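Box 3.1 A note on notation
Throughout this textbook, protein chains are presented in two layers. The first layer is the amino acid sequence; the second is a token string describing backbone geometry. Keep the layers aligned when reading.
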Amino acid sequence: MSAHATKSRHPVFWAFPLFLALALFPWLGPPVYFVSFLFTVFLYVVLASSWNIIGGYAGYLSFGHVAFFGIGGYTTGILMKWLDLSPLWTILSSLPAGAVSALIALVVGYPCLRLKGPYFAVITLCFAFVVELGIKNVEILGGPEGLWLKSMDLPIDVIRSIMFEVMLLIMILSIALGIWTDRSKFGAGLRAIKEDEDVAQTMAINTPRLKIQAFVLSAFFPGVAGGVYAYYLTYIHPDIVFDVMISILVVLMALFGGGGTWLGPVIGAVALTFINEGLSTFVKAELARIIYGCLFIVVIVFMPNGIMEFFKKGRRVSST
């Protein structure tokens, strides 16, 4: 294979013009709906890609990852309320929001990661519920009324464009983390844990350390995204940022695209965000939940490796 062909297959080669076009999009005067929709796509790519670190590569299915998203949102909201930050510093405070989410993941991860399989899934889901109930009962955090955040003193279309660019950057960084994980010794260790954790330990792999590192990394980006999302809405409420449907969607997106690959969660997040938008527009919420449940069953039973497996099979057939 020639050097030119190898270069053309490198992700950066085809991703750069795509990301450049996305970065220019909000400044071309499109309808607000499309800017908001793409912002949501970026958000779910971040959540699915970060969840994939612990759920896809390590095989620990966390159904409470929305907790870190909500913690990040409330961290930014509280910092803005207490410190009266300027708009620029408020956006930058999403980094401490990610750090707080990662720190809490470090504390929670040590006991939770001792569990496996459905036990781990249930305990992470309970963790999300506990955090939501706790915030609802703390007045300093806004309680059941939520928190209102001061917006930038700029036209609404400019504000949306700025937040669009910030979320796009976070998405690019989360995808880069996925690519690095996919090609690093860290990712190889996580794959070994997913295949057989006991065997991985006999191969001198420090499984407890790798698991906690994966859990912390997977919590950082949802925290950052939650902080940006809270400022984007200028209002934060537990029912919004701790919605269990976000967790279910994120898991479904990663598994639908193909967990344990860097590209799978990206494809799954983009595809299911379009589907979710259609269901939200034309279908009642109760029926949408039934459809999601059926889709989840189909993915688990018939597509355990996601649609990426079909691409790989097609590539093998074409090469023979």
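The chain is about 80% helix and 0% strand. Residues 1-8 have pLDDT under 50 and may be disordered.
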